[in-house]
Amino acid sequence: MRKLHKFNAVRTEVDNHKFPSKLEANYYKKLKLLQQAGEVIGFFMQVPLHFKCGTTYRMDFLVFYADGTCKGVETKGILTPDFKIKAKMVEQEYPWFDLEIVKKV
Q1: In what order do the strands lie in the sheet with 56-65?
Q2: First-last CA distance in the chain
Q3: Model confidence over 61-71: pLDDT tens digits?
Q4: Is CB count within 10 Å lower at the N or C end of the chain?
């Protein structure tokens, strides 16, 4: 019997990449289309951010846009209290880029 995710997320595979949710997989597909259109230069997945307190947080995507901007992206079905704390830590320790929270694609 397969164990269900605590938030009912469905693991999804796209381009030989395994994603913990359909939402994250769909955002990956969107980034690929934006890259083909020339709006996105490139992106990294599961980027570790290291905090001064010794904690590490893995951001879903770090996206580099053609206009020279850089944005962190986190796909979330549910905004947990733990995530809200980590998002504030990202804002404080990495102020040079925005963290976008995507709830729907």
Answers
A1: 40-50, 56-65, 70-75, 98-102
A2: 30
A3: 999 999 999 99
A4: N
